[in-house]
Structures are given as C-alpha cells and as structure tokens.
Amino acid sequence: MLAIEVKNLTKEFNDLKAVDNVSFEVQEGEIFAFLGPNGAGKTTTIKILTTLLRPTSGEISLNGSDPIKEQNTVRRSFGIVFQDPSLDDELTAYENMEFHGVLYKVSKEIRINRIEQLLKFVELWDRKDELVKNFSGGMKRRLEVARGLIHHPKILFLDEPTLGLDPQTRNHIWNYIKSLNKEENMTVFFTTHYMDEAEKVAKKVAIIDHGKIISQGTVEELKKNTKTDSLEDAFLSLTGTTIREEKSNNLDHMRMHRRIRY
Amino acid sequence: MSTIYILWLRQLKRYFRSKPRIIGSLGQPLLFLVALGFGLGPIFQKAGGGNYIQFLAPGIISMGIIFTALFSGIEIIWDRQFGFLKETLVAPTSRLEIMIGRTLGGATVASFQGILILFLSFLVGFRPENIMILPFAFIFIFLTALLFTALGTAIASVLEDMQGFQLIMNFLVMPLFFLSGALFPLNGLPKALTIVASINPLSYGVDGLRDTLTNVSHFGLFPDLLILSVITGIILVIGSYLFSKIQI
C-alpha cells in the first residue's frame, strides 16, 4: 500500500514556482529521504502534505486520504517535526508534551506513559518541569522530536530533524525512529542536509532542486546513475556546487531579533 | 472539549507566569484613576456631574479589559512567528475548537485583569452602589473581554507580523477607548461624537458596567446587554472565519 502519493504537484507564490510538477510515491513502512539544496522546495512540499498550505494544482494522497478535502483524517495519521522551532517557550517541557497529547486525543493513560518514556529517552526527564525558554538549542530539538512521536503516527514527517545535534544524539534519535519504523511499520519521510545520515537510513531517496525532482530511487541506484561512490557525491553531481540563496522573510528577522535579545 | 480546555489553560498559564506583564498593565489604569479621577474630579463635581471617581472607574476597568483582551488575541502573531501556531494547526482538531479555546482563555485572563482593576479602584475611593448586582457586572466584564479577544484574533489572523501593531493601537484601540464614554458622559455631546459613540461597541460595555456598578446608565441596561452580545457574536464569527483561513 502507498503511504504517500503525489502527482503533478505544483505550488506557486506570486511569480515564483516553489514546487514545479512534482510526482513521487512512498510505500507504507518505508524510510524516504527528500533531499535538496536550500530553497529547493522541500519544506513547501512538506507543508502541503501536512495540510498547512494549499497546492496550486496536483493530486496528493496520504494513507488514501486527500489532505485538502479530508484534513482531519489526514491530520490524525501523521506526526511532524518542523524545521523551525515550534515549542511554546513559556510552557515547561512536560506541558508542551501534554498539550500535544491532548490535541491528538491520546488517552490519558497512554499519554502519561509515553510522555515519561519519550522524555526519558531524549534525556529530558529530570528537566521536565523547566520552562522551555531556558533550554539550549539541542535540548529543544530533542524535545520537538519526542513530541512528534507521542501519538505514534502512521507517517512521520521530519524536516531536518537532526539539525544542530551532535553525532551521539543524532545516532540515538535515528535508532529510535528506525525501531519505531520496524515495530509499528511507521512510514518516515524526512529531509536532511547530512548525506551520510540519508545514506545510512533511507530506503528510497528523491532529490529536488529548483522545485523539480531531478532524480529518485534507492541510494544504490543514485550512486550507479551518477557513477559516484557516496550519496554526497551523487547529490553534488546532480545539483551542482553553486551555493543557493534563500529569500529571507519576516520570520528570519524575528529570530534574529530574538537571538540578540536573549 | 479537552482541546478547548487545554488551549484555555495554556492562555492562563502564560498569563499568570508573566508577573511583570500583570503588574505592568495595572500601572496605566492606576495612573488614569489617580490623575484623571482626582485631577478632573473637582470640575466634574462643580459642573453637577457628581463624584468623578464613581463615574470614571467603570471606564478604566473597561480600558484594562480591552487592552489585555486585544493583546491576548494578537498573541497569535507571536505564536505564528515563534512557530507554535503550526503545532496547533496541524493537529487533528477543528480550527473552530482552537479559536474557541484561545478566545475563552484570553477572555478569562482579561476578565481577571478587569477584576484586579476593580479592586484597585476601591483604593482610590470607588464604591459599588449595590453589592447584590455585582454578579451582573461580571457579565459585562466577560462579554467585553470576549468581544475584544475575538477582535484581536481577527486582526492577528490577517496581520503577518507585529509591525502593524502600533497602527492598530493608535487607529483602533485608542479611538475605541477614548470615544466610548469611558472618560466623559455621553449626554449633550456634539452630534458627530454622539454618532461615533453609539456605533462604538465599547460604549455599550462601559455603559452596562457603569449601570451595574453605579446605577447610572446612558443607553439602559437591557439595550447594553443586547447590543454587546450581538456584536460579540458577530465578531466571534468573523474571527473564527479569518482564523480558519490562516495559511503558514
């Protein structure tokens, strides 16, 4: 069965085509890496798949439901760890977790167990009652990953989940995600800039650039097609070596301000 | 139900955790009560208006409510910018539930703020006429709070960032407050001002509160309640609609 099916997806912002006629499929239980340089259209695609944005055109299906017409069914079926922070800084770690559990209607008993288990897993259990604003970047990231797993989603979206984490933590988190993928047959759809990470965990890979998918297949296939011996080299040979500029938005300004303020 | 509850609870926790905000937002009403109350009191008395503090306190209570309520609604902009809004919007709950939870939370907080100012006004000599009808005052406090939280939500749903905030304060909130009869009686005003005051929803909130606290009313208690409820209902619907259209 297909977990995610995308056909001819296009998203335009004014005159910019952020996603341009993209099609791909993700099998149920698969770990799928969605790779591309900055500004390639990864996050926009994830936002459309997770009901946050409406596509300009194209067909999408998540677990057999349409994210545009059957928003609530779709929302129940996935979990997401966003690229940008999305915690409430004025709440404690535990409250952030509980808030998520209640929003996803996880029953109280399961909620309490899982929150404890997950917070212990990301080693934040002894600091569960501290306000998130006192956490370091890495701690917040771990908390976000833990939060995305409370409701044991069928599909897990991870938008650069390990950004800014040390190798130990990355390894730790991926092991957990892999075990969930195995035990619960959870589909994992992730983006990352760490090619070694993608090479290690992804069963299938799609590479997107300038809003278009330029190559997809298994890691082996990609390496074979580009006659390279690592995914990183394959990626560079497909997308070139020029550095991309991302347009800044208000959010970036805000974050800058916040960083300066604290 | 649990969604509404957790969102309501979140607003309360955020409010009670920011003590500086609570204390800070009591400063302005207190200043108004003292400076205007005692400063203009003698003239008001001479002109036959009676005790000015008695007249002014309900207006200042309303001021505290609308500032806190509007700010609670506008907090959505912060949530959007700091990412938390996304977390709420991808959850399998309807936008209406989210909006209701948030708005009730904001309204509760603003009502609490209003009640704090009511106590504060006792310090400068304000006395309710009739303790028995004090519960009715709470109805007006809550309705006003609800109205302006929903208004804040509606505004925040269309604003991208805080840059528009000053604009809203100076061209919406301040005029609403100053032209509501919070500071002066609505009798015998120039025609234009009378019209503006009568289409200003806050006028009915202030008047209803003044009626229940001091037994003085311009529009009458029943019209106040009716008009305030209807407008609150309309703004709630508009706010919910705009909130449901948010894209990130």
Give a brief description:
Chain A is an alpha/beta fold and 262 residues long. Chain A is built from 10 helices and 9 strands.
The CATH first-level class of chain A comes to Alpha Beta
Task: Briefly note the structural class of the backbone of chain B.
Answer: mainly alpha
Q: Report how far apart the termini of chain B are.
A: 25 Å
User: What is the CATH architecture annotation of chain A?
Assistant: 3-Layer(aba) Sandwich
Low-pLDDT residue spans of chain A: 253-262
Largest interface: A-B, 33 and 27 residues
Description:
The complex is a heterodimer of chains A (262) and B (248). With 262 residues, chain A is α/β, with parallel strands linked by helices. Chain A has ten helices and nine strands. Chain A has helices at residues 42-49, 71-77, 93-103, 108-121, 137-148, 167-184, 195-201, 219-226, 231-239, 250-261; strands at 2-13, 16-27, 31-35, 57-62, 78-81, 155-159, 187-191, 204-209, 212-217. Chain A has a six-stranded mixed sheet with strand order 5-6-7-3-8-9, sandwiched between helices. In chain A, β1 (2-13) and β2 form a beta hairpin. Chain A is globular and about 50 Å long. The relative contact order of chain A is 0.16. Mean pLDDT of chain A is 87; it is low at 253-262. Chain B has 248 residues and is mainly alpha-helical. Chain B has helices spanning 2-17, 19-46, 52-81, 84-89, 95-123, 134-158, 165-178, 191-199, 201-214, 221-244. In chain B, α2 packs across α5 (95-123), α3 (52-81) packs parallel to α6 and α9 (201-214) packs across α10 (221-244). The model of chain B has no long low-confidence stretch (mean pLDDT 91). Classes of the chains: A alpha/beta (262), B mainly alpha (248). Chain A binds chain B through residues 47, 50-54, 72, 75-76, 78, 80, 82, 84-91, 95, 98-100, 102-105, 131, 250-251, 254, 258, and chain B through 2-3, 5-6, 10, 13-14, 17-18, 79, 81-84, 86-94, 160-161, 247-248.
